[in-house]
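Below is how a single chain appears once it has passed through the pipeline. First comes the sequence as given, then the structure the pipeline wrote out for it. We keep one example in the README because the format questions we get most often are answered faster by looking than by reading.
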Amino acid sequence: MKTKIIAVLLFAAVLLMARDNILLVNYGPEQSIREGDDDFYQLVFFRIEDTFTDSLYVRIFDMDCGGDVDLNFSSWNTTMRFELFGGVGAFSPQSLQNAKPDPGDITAGLSLAMKTIGEDKELNNSWYNFAHIRPADGEKIGNAYYFKLLVQGLSGNDANIFDVRLSTVASMNTTAAEFSMFSPSPTLRLGKDENLAAITFFVPKDAKSINVNNFDLAGASVQLVTPFRSNLPVNSSGQGEWVKSTTALQPIETGHPCAVVLGQGSESPNDVSLHIADDQDKTLLIDLPIYLKKLNRRPLIQTSLIALSDCQSIVFDAKASSDPDGDLLDFYWDFGDGSTAVGSRIVHRYNEQKTYQARVIVSDNSGDVGNSTLQNFSVTVNKPPVAQAGKDMITAPNTLVSFDGSRSSDEDGRITVYAWDFGDGKTASGASVSHSYLNPGTF
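Resulting structure:
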């Protein structure tokens, strides 16, 4: 019997240590909100594109409230309800995208599966196939079907720590590009881990700023990361309080994913809630699962510009750029004249001689939100000088002839080199030079 118990405990430890994402958490309603859960329920939504027609499994890890993964404060006394909704009302009520939806909208839609559970050793520290669904059972909005999972504490004061997946097979978690999970305001558990929790969300193109609302971070480190900036400060909440921080965005940062990155606070493990919105107070839905990772180091840009002899073509070269993590790099050029190109070395010809405001974006293939570096620079396309070599001349062989180019001009600069080719194989340099021809002819 001891051997069996040790084996089970070791297996549980391996499962927990191998996780690459943080877990969700719900408390029973008799617990204080100072533990990090201020409403004792949370919503997880599934989005499935209408091009995907195969059935899917809603899988839940450690569904019960008891055992190795969860947390109690005396004896296990908590019951939880897991309920999946599809049909009309599963996602369309506007309040469902708020941090605090209307109570009636939380249970809107057609109930497809429901389970009330407390301590259950069979479901402890293991994956459970909660529901087998068809995409068409969801609520059709646009080109996708939506489902809603409600997880709610019904009684007790324990912490139910769990995970959720949508999978193409019943025996393991497999994903596809056609479906995704998200939450408007997740409650999650920050464990004892060296890596950081990267909470990603998409920022609409018209957003001017981001409002990050966090609850019960207990002083944990927190920062905002955009595609081009890191370490943007976010105020960290104390125990049992909501704190809001607003960060202005640069135009180039909108229309892309951003991330709130959380570290450890004064509590470990630490349970926190988040809600993110734009300057119009529109909720920015948080991607699930939330992964643990080290912060990516951005590419280091090194560029050179070489003007070609036609005075209108420029070589844009960023081959000397590098990535501190050894990631592969992609290069995107905006030449400032409405033209763009990709590649580490590009030749571009401008149609007008003037100064252009150009930029290059270098991105690594890490998959992180903060994977790009931007460099702005000016490109001046020079107007070519106008050469004035003087009138045609008639002379005799072996007679020294003077050539004067000093009347040549350059509209947007100064002439630095005068190069003469006399047509008989001889050359010279300088504004004024002399030359004699040995043989008669036209040169």
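The radius of gyration is 33 Å.

See the next section for the split statistics.
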